[in-house]
Write a structure and sequence with these properties.
Residues 39-193 form the Pectinesterase inhibitor domain. This is Pectinesterase inhibitor domain-containing protein. One of its GO terms (molecular function) is enzyme inhibitor activity. Residues 1-30 form the signal peptide. It is built from seven helices and no strands. By secondary structure, the protein is mostly helical. It has two domains: 1-32; 39-197, Butyryl-CoA Dehydrogenase, subunit A, domain 3. Helix 2 runs antiparallel to helix 3 (60-67), helix 4 runs antiparallel to helix 5 (114-142) and helix 5 (114-142) runs antiparallel to helix 6. It is flat. The structure holds 2-acetamido-2-deoxy-beta-D-glucopyranose. 2-acetamido-2-deoxy-beta-D-glucopyranose is lined by residues 65-66, 86, 89-90, 93, 182, 186. Residues 65-66, 86, 89-90, 93, 182, 186 line the site of 2-acetamido-2-deoxy-beta-D-glucopyranose.
């Protein structure tokens, strides 16, 4: 009987111990500070809510995904420059993918698939144009020539749309749907950011 009560009380003690331990762990977790959003994160979130909320071309999630990595962005103009960079990187990798699809021995695109090859060649030239225009677009954004930058970006958005549309017209399955979508949205995102950058108080008017 004595041994029963002894073991019983020790198991009660260990249960209490576990509960206390759990409790203190929970308490510590509750008290742990929430990682603070940096000023730059807050700026990006606010900017994405503003431009994404008012856009029919892309949403807040796309904007955050694209700009989320932009450390130290200071305003709409800087964010537009980030979007322009992303577009250039995207277009460069899409161009490489097209080259690979068309490339060499035609491993990926069969010789008899003339329609697909024709569409890909058209996209190759369209994306080549986006890549070539990249430096001028960046220079225009950084130089505050937003109208010029916007014209280049609208041309890029139209090129991505034209590439995708070519496959549809030829009833060929597009191997570039995701890339065309990203390029179109990145260009429209940059255009939207530039629109806000040109509003007084949003840009770098007052340094
Ligand atoms: C292209 O842009 C999209 C959207 O921001 C991004 O998710 C993707 O990683 C980019 N791809 C490349 C190769 O830069």
């Amino acid at each position: 009987m004595a041994s029963f009560s002894c073991s019983s009380s020790s198991s009660v003690m260990s249960v209490m111990g576990v509960i206390l331990l759990l409790f203190s762990v929970l308490l510590a977790a509750a008290e742990a500070p929430v990682p603070a959003r940096s000023a730059s994160d807050q700026m990006i979130l606010a900017a994405c809510k503003t431009v994404g909320g008012g856009s029919t071309y892309f949403d807040v999630t796309f904007c955050l995904g694209a700009l989320g990595s932009a450390g130290g962005a200071g305003g709409y103009q800087d964010l537009a420059a980030v979007a322009v960079d992303l577009l250039a990187t995207n277009a460069t990798s899409t161009e490489a993918k097209i080259d690979r699809l068309l490339g060499g021995s035609g491993v990926e695109v069969k010789a008899d698939d003339a329609a697909l090859a024709r569409c890909l060649r058209s996209c190759q030239s369209l994306y080549g144009g986006i890549v070539d225009d990249g430096p001028a677009c960046t220079a225009a954004v950084n130089g505050g020539r937003f109208g010029e930058a916007t014209a280049i970006l609208e041309k890029a958005a139209a090129a991505a749309k034209e590439c995708e549309g070519g496959f549809e017209k030829s009833s060929a399955a597009s191997p570039l749907t995701a890339e065309d979508d990203d390029a179109f949205k990145l260009a429209k995102l940059a255009v939207a950011l530039l629109r806000f950058a040109s509003e007084p108080g949003n840009g770098h008017c007052c340094y």
